Amino acid sequence: MPGTSLRTYLLTRLALVVPMVLILLTLVFLLMRVAPGNPISAALGGHVPPAVINQITHQLGFDRPLWRQYVDYLWDILRGNFGTTITDHRPLSQIILVNGAATLELTFFAMLVAIVVGVVIGLVAGRYRDTSLDVFGRLFGIVAYATPVFFLGLMAQLVFGVWLGWLPTSDQASPITQALLPTHTNILFIDAIIDRNWAALWDIVQHLILPSITLGLATAGIFIRLIRVNVIRTLRDDYIEAARARGINERDVVYHHAFKNALVPVITVVGLNMALLLGGAVLTETTFNWPGIGHALVTYLENRDYTAVQGIIVVFALVVVFVSVLVDFINAYVDPRIRY
Amino acid sequence: MASVSSRVVQPVARATKPIREAHGVARAMLWTGAAITLFFVVLALFAPWISPYNFNQYKSNGVRFPQLAHPSSKHWMGTTVQSSDVMARVIYGAQTELKVVVIALVMALVVGVPLGLLSGYFGGWIDRVLVLLMDAMFAFPYLLIAIVIAFLLSNTIGQGVLTAAIAITVAYVPLYFRVVRNHVISVREEPYVDAARALGAKPRTVIRRYVFFNVVQNVPPIATLNAADAILLLAALGFLGYGIQPSSGAEWGYDINRAVSDASSGIWWTGLFPGLAIVLLVTGLTLLGEGLNETLNPVLRRRRFGRIQFELFEEPVPALDE
Question: Is the pLDDT higher at A77 or at B59?
């Protein structure tokens, strides 16, 4: 459809979200419900009398026909009701707000680290292809990718926490800061700024350094790889050749023509890696005892709390879809070729 | 039956030609990666002969090993809190990784490749439904898919090599599906496929003889990179406690999880060595995969000779560099 306007494109893209979300939600539902075993007895453990289990099963509606449960599940999500956990009766919306804020804080700073490290090394490696700089850059990227976040985190804790004693190795802030800092946004970093509480902010930043660098470096490996290939591809394009032919010096060609164009796809890469980053966040949060949503997921998995697990997975799914739509919008806005 | 050998040998020779002609960085990556991978495969296969102790052995000749002992001449990588030898656990860990990754990759290929072939070749509603399904799964963080699958299966099958392998398989099927399908779509309209169809070949024959071999060339680099990914995924599952049962095998991710509590008292050897094993093996597989990618993928390929000649069907492709 040549000549499609931005608006038509956006509307079409939005319409495609509906089946995508529906499929994801259905997959989650099927996985969680078709799985054998009674979720209630799994969550409450073996010491609860059967009568109590039956009663709670009935209360939560797990004894109704499957299609009925499915419809109710979709309807609840549509209304923004993600349920309440079985084990500690926390509403999922509260988990999303409080733990989600902690995850947001961590992933934001991790993404910053990843972008800075990835873009710098990726551009240099691609520009100086097949030189020792390139080999070093690629090797760094591969090793960064090959290092599991939890291993990097463990080593960082050992070196900077235990041996050097420079930085705290767990939690989001010291207990004092957490107790005294009033809640505005649930994101401690912003709360401290709102309150102009610089001591608390310093404390929070110290807690952020190790987890965000750990998660960021692990993600940077992928950025390096993709940006490097992009630069190589761009440097081979016709318009680069044309710029060279016009006698523009190599420096300007590289900096003004090639790099900018090589970086446009980074938006997409950032978006696509959101899923990866969320996965990495689960591991980083567990390693650093960071009270994020991934940490919550692991805890509820251990307690075999099906409602909580299902709710958190649904939230992850919605976030992933949301980010992918956002990325497409930004791309369509930046690059008109995509709309056609 | 002479035609059989020429039918097998020639394509193999043709397929490995780029590998033999690889040079420069790509060659170095390819061979370094292959050497590292081979090293771990040997460790895995001959673990009982290479390893000084068994992975869960905590005493020898009736004498219990010391707990959390520093690396020494008796225990090169020290011992854990359960008195088992860290080096033995690292070596036997290679065995576990190999088992799980091989099973997972084979299952993912067996499911993903045929689905991709069918979906890409026939198109229509099957294609649309499969693409929607797979895209939905692909969008999802695969670590989470694997965790949830492992969590659900641990109720029934129990934790073990198979559970971990299935969890990893489910996470990777969409990837193979996607790669194969997209490639089939681009190959489907090629003149030689059209020609085969025009000559009256059945879809079965066309897919098997013309499409499959063209598409399957893409699989080795992806499968290798995927094996690297699968090792990270297995380690992550193990770290979170959804890997394999500690009594049935040593697993590096699980060992790192155990090492977290040692770290606060400054004990480094229980975590460092399993971690280094992961880093080394994943680096090796990645080098191998990238090396393969660079030598097999014409877009990235650089060779000594000017022009790339495809013997069959295609017109000469101009060299991309120099």
Answer: A77
pLDDT tens digit string along A172-228? 777 777 777 777 777 777 777 777 777 777 878 888 888 999 999 888 887 888 888
The distance in angstroms from the start CA to the end CA of chain B is 44
Chain A residues touching residue B232 (CB < 8 angstroms): 146, 148
Task: Using DSSP, state whether B247 is helix, strand or coil.
Answer: coil
3-state class (DSSP) for residue B30: helix
E strand residue ranges, chain B: 59-60, 63-64
What SS3 state is found at A280? helix
CB A212 within 8 A of CB A109: yes
Nearest Cα to Cα of residue B43 among B119, B98, B118, B100: B98
CA atoms of B162 and B237, how far apart (whole Å):
13
Contact check, Cβ <8 Å, B283/A142: yes
Contact residues, A window 117-136, toward B, CB-based 8 Å cutoff: 130, 134-135
> Would the pLDDT of B305 be above 60?
no
Residue A276 has pLDDT above 80, yes or no: no
Residue A2 has pLDDT above 50, yes or no: no
A150 contact residues in B (CB cutoff 8 A):
236, 239, 253, 256-257
The distance of A7 to chain B (nearest Cα, Å) reads: 24
How sure is the predictor about B304, in pLDDT bands with cuts at 50, 70 and 90? very low
Q: Considering only alpha carbons, which residue of chain A is nearest residue B283?
A: A146
The complex scores an ipTM of 0.81
Report residue B44 as tokens: 């895995």
C-alpha Rg value of chain B to the nearest Å? 23
Greater confidence (B177 vs B62) lies with B177
User: Which residues of A fall within a CB distance of 8 Å from B253?
Assistant: 148, 150
| Closest listed residue to residue B217, CA positions, set B9, B12, B6, B3 | B12
List of residues 6+ apart from B245 with CB closer than 8 A: B158, B159, B160
Number of neighbours of residue B188 by Cβ within 10 angstroms: 18
Q: What angle do CA B143, B86, B242 make, to 5 degrees?
A: 25
Q: Do residues B218 and B117 make contact, with C-beta atoms less than 8 angstroms apart?
A: no
Residue the block writes with tokens 């969590």? B151
| Percent of chain B surpassing pLDDT 90 | 4
Q: Does B147 touch chain A (CB under 8 A)?
A: yes
Whole-structure pTM value? 0.81
Question: Is the per-residue pLDDT at B3 higher than 60?
Answer: no
Task: Please tell me the predicted confidence (pLDDT) of residue B312.
Answer: 41
B55, B56, B61, B63 alpha-carbon torsion, rounded to 10°: 120
Q: Nearest CA to B229 among B270, B181, B298, B288? A: B288
For residue B5, the model assigns a pLDDT of 56
Cβ-based contacts of B139 with chain A (< 8 Å)? 20, 24, 275, 317, 320-321, 324
Report pLDDT for A1.
Answer: 43
